[in-house]
Amino acid sequence: MYQKKIANTLSCGSVLTKEVLHGKWKSTLLSCIAQGVRRPSAMQRTIPSATRRVLNVQLTEMEQHGLIAKTVFPELPPRVEYHLTSLGQSLLPVIAVMEEWGNTHRTELEQVLAVSLAELPG
């Protein structure tokens, strides 16, 4: 796993929050699990632009952070389901506020982000 060269100072609550939500799909995955999408294959269908590997890495990180828990069913083929822990549940209002803010400022943000993406070399 990637190791950061400069350690984060975790003295600020917003840094802690960003640390556990850092990842393109983490807030989306938490929302999916909260809405009943519990199996990795269903999450992949819900978020088709995310690769299976990235989803698995981010699910593992969230499990390590205590946001979700994994249940492995002893059957063939193996079946895995995720559910939110109480810590993960406590993040849902934060994610809802972030979504509301994004939707409120959608027009402005889409314009700014379109310009930013167009300026990238490539």
TrEMBL record:
Cell wall biogenesis/degradation is among the record's keywords: no
Domain of life: Bacteria
Domain HTH hxlR-type: start-end pairs: 12-110
One protein family per Pfam: HxlR
UniProt keywords, alphabetically: DNA-binding, Transcription, Transcription regulation
Protein name: Helix-turn-helix domain-containing protein
